[in-house]
Amino acid sequence: MRVFVAVEVDNKDILQKIRSMQESAHFKAKPIRVDQIHFTLQFLGEIDEEKCERVKDLLRTITFSHFNLSLKGVGGFPNLKNPRVIWIGIDKKGAGKLIEMAKEIEMKLTSLGFEKDKKFKPHLTVLRVKHKVGDISLRMKEYETIEFGTQVVSKIKLKRSVLSPKGPEYSDLLVVNENEK
């Protein structure tokens, strides 16, 4: 099964603002379904049931206290002049906490044979650009300073991803709540 560790965005006000931003993007791009918006802390790829159980056991050992992420601004990978992905950023303090959490998860998962992931850059993917759209930096200018809201991070999830022609379908395999051991 194809799995990853994530923090989901479930604040309805934030999700509504994201949906509005997606709908107002006047260029050809595929919006991420708002019920699937998340931060991928670590992508684990294809693993079998046995390894999945070991991952769950390991994730249950992670303890943390809830923290806030302020979502604001937009950007693109590799950039807004030739984007493949449009993302929403987060505040420095929240990003630091999310990076810390991702590093702890990565360190623990190396004991199960997972290799270190590429450097974690906290962002929310909101649009995927399949075909070249050119420079959209001027069109996205209005979103550079927009504040989407504050998300409380109080749980991490081990998610399963099943790919289909309609896009990925996600399901929860494990939920780890704050201060739970």
Structure description:
- By secondary structure, the chain is α+β, with helices and mostly antiparallel strands.
- The mean pLDDT is 92.
- It has a single domain, classed as Cyclic Phosphodiesterase, Chain: A (Alpha-Beta Complex), CATH 3.90.1140.10.
- It has four helices and nine strands; from the N terminus they run E-H-E-E-H-E-E-H-E-H-E-E-E.
- The strands form two sheets. It has a five-stranded antiparallel beta sheet with strand order 2-6-5-4-7. The chain has a four-stranded antiparallel beta sheet with strand order 3-1-8-9, covered by helices on one side.
- The two termini are 25 Å apart.
CATH architecture heading: Alpha-Beta Complex
Query: What's the average pLDDT?
Result: 92
The rounded Rg comes to: 17 Å
The helical percent reads: 25-40%
Shape: globular
List low-pLDDT spans. none
Order of helices and strands: EHEEHEEHEHEEE
Q: Walk across the major sheet and give the strand order.
A: 2-6-5-4-7
